[in-house]
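TOPIC: backbone geometry
CONTENTS: sequence, structure tokens:
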Amino acid sequence: MSARVGLCAALVLIGCGGDGARGGDGAHTAGSGGSAGTQSSVGGSGGATGFAGAAPGGSASLTTGGVGGLAAGGSAGSGSRPTSMLGACHLYLDAWCQRMVDCTASEDVDRCKEQEYALCPDLFFSPGTTRTVDGLAACATDISQMTCLDWEQDNWPSCVSPGTRAEGESCVFSSQCQSLECAASGDSCGTCLPIANLGELCGDNAACGPGQRCNGVCELIPAPPPGQMPPDPSPVPPGLAQGMSCGLMDSCAQGLWCLLPMPWPADVPADSKPGTCDVLPAANAPCAFERFASGASCAEGAYCDAASTTCQPLPTSGEPCLTFPFPDCALGFFCDRTVNADGVCTAQGDLGAACSVSVPCLADLSCVPAMPGGAFSCHTVAQEGQDCTAQTSQCEAGTQCQGGICVATDELTTFSSLCGQ
């Protein structure tokens, strides 16, 4: 596909709680790492990054959402209009994350949902916001129909309504502010920022309006050169077919990557060398350099061995963990360093198995206690509206099992806990 863009690059100023591309009204917490390593570690379409670069992080994560976490993906019953704040928040973020992928060439839609779902429903319904359940659900459609040029220039639909909190008042989310700009850093209380005019100073104390960016002063965002913005409407066009030559600005079809042969002369810049759209090389094939990755690439389940420059299978049960690159074990396994300092690849916990911070569950399960204060074990995660009567099932974050169904609690606690109001 097209260039891999990490969430941090796509969601500008997300840690500041900004709206639009300054947070897109759905972004508040920063993603970590490039999508190349992320995809290989969760079994996505990308392969394991090779010796020239690896994604940050340790061994396989606890679960999709961590201990007590939530599952990424749409809310249950997403085919009908949600009736809870949680459901409306999820529906909106489904559209927002997908549009981000369409317009920024990012391939982290599931990671985006996973991170942003954790902020629901507070993200849009904290004190000072003007959003309603019906309005936010309807706004998801408007977001999904935005042009990529409007996305790039922060021209958000009118349903992205400003809040009521004035300049200098406390906030955690942009939706609370009249300016749709909240200067909050990480998990802390911030203040609503004013909007500077074109040519005025901007930065920590003032933000720029739609169609502008901060470069010491507010300046207009230039329109991208022809051919450098995905055409509208979405989705992004299918891309170049397998075997076709690809350059720096080209996109390959789904499941294909712009690959450069290895090695190539050191005096030839990778950016100027033509590549070929192809699948990532499997185990025992020569490594390839994916143009937009940080290093040599192989298909899922393999890594690039630096000594032989060939793709080798990731280690499985009982085999020593890789010390580099990430991931250090094959999908479904984690590096158990309780055995020795280097670690041994061990199967992740299956349904009902005991789990902990150091013994994670399989990726589609969550490590949670069967009851408050109880022992942790691997459970399926039931979303809002789904059955929760199974002994090995737990309701997603923000819901409770009532009458055998996961029901949204719609509790709003983030603003009060961080700002004391």
About this structure: The longest strand covers residues 376-382.
